[in-house]
Amino acid sequence: MARYMRPPNTSLFVRNISDEPEDLRREFGRYGPIVDVYIPLDFYTRQPRGFAYIQYPFPMSFNCVCCC
């Protein structure tokens, strides 16, 4: 048994995103309820860095999620 138990991962890393969190909520909401959409910003330009984390309320398994 592991010394430190990590909680199950409930977030999904997404690359090459649009700048709108609502677009991500609409697309990825098809796979379950979404708790949060986090789009990191560049420290200097304050522009989105091109990726996001989508957090679901429970662990999920994804075989392939493609929006292409």
Automatic annotation (TrEMBL):
Q: Where is the RRM domain?
A: 10-56
Record-linked PROSITE patterns: RRM
Q: Name one Pfam family in it.
A: RRM_1
| Any coiled-coil regions, as ranges | none
Listed Gene3D superfamilies: 3.30.70.330
Q: Which UniProt keywords apply?
A: RNA-binding
GO molecular function ontology, one term from the record: RNA binding
RNA-binding among keywords: yes
Protein name according to UniProt: RRM domain-containing protein
